[in-house]
Specification:
homodimer, elongated, DNA-binding
Chain lengths: 137, 137
DNA sequence: CTTGACCTTGTACCATGGTAGAGGCCTTAC
DNA sequence: GTAAGGCCTCTACCATGGTACAAGGTCAAG
């Protein structure tokens, strides 16, 4: 009928234990069970797991990911709250992108310095990242 | 003469213990000591700490950051190795940026859906992130 | 010359995000 | 009907990245 936890784990390339862990932590909904107690998943469980993994790679914590997944609009009732959360998250993502771009610029300059075989007494990375260091959060 | 660990901690907005921890982990060089054993830092220690914090926010582990800091070109001798590391890191950063952009697009679509007060039976986030899910690393 | 703020080392503890193993039940194939 | 493999729960352990506390030395002010 549905997918077993092992099938889901294989398709999503995660550990079985991890799926159960996510269920405990509220990231995966508790699936239906067979009469004998086996978990039965719908195919979208695989998509959800892949989403979680991607979001994690992007630096979101499991708690944040739980929130992201909870942003699924429920009947328009909580729509404003959802919108606010989405906006906040988007702002955060935007900032991360900007910082990564600065990092990338620094890395590119380092590569260029290496290619140019400059005497390179100094490392551009530290200084370049310091440039934009007007953060305090 | 130099900065005390407390001064550095305050300026870089990190815990004193954290600085010592970084020293143990090889992210901060062991500074000179006063005759009585107090650590004495040069002002660039603050910059280094801020770099570490920024890199962490970008999703780099302490080990990766240690590597990044080690990329400081030493006399051109290890220049090719440094260049390769920088390139690899840049590729990784580029990928992260792309994924974050997809996440941002999903969030923006969600916001738009909220604003439009659509019936919003479905959440765009999960599906949109699934779109680009041609990853396996 | 003592009080308080600061420093030292060492060890222990915490949260997050898993991973592993024990002990036991289910299922399918021979 | 029995063995292999999958699943169940529960508990314990691991790495990472800190944070806290104890016991004690240092230093500057009064």
């Amino acid at each position: 009928m549905g997918l077993s936890i092992g099938q889901v784990a294989r398709e999503a390339a995660v550990n079985i234990q991890t799926i159960r862990y996510y269920e405990r932590r509220g990231l995966m909904p508790a699936p239906r069970r067979t009469p004998s107690g086996y978990r039965q998943y719908m195919p979208d469980a695989v998509a959800r797991l892949r989403f979680i993994k991607r979001a994690q790679d992007l630096g979101f914590s499991l708690e944040e990911i739980r929130d992201l997944l909870a942003l699924r609009v429920r009947h328009g009732s909580a729509c404003e709250a959802v919108e606010a959360k989405a906006r906040a998250k988007a702002a955060l993502v935007k900032q991360k992108i900007q910082e990564l771009r600065r990092m990338q610029a620094a890395l590119r300059r380092l590569v260029a310095a290496c290619e140019a075989r400059e005497p390179t007494g100094e490392c551009p990375i530290l200084e370049l990242l310091e440039e934009g260091a007007t953060v305090d959060a």
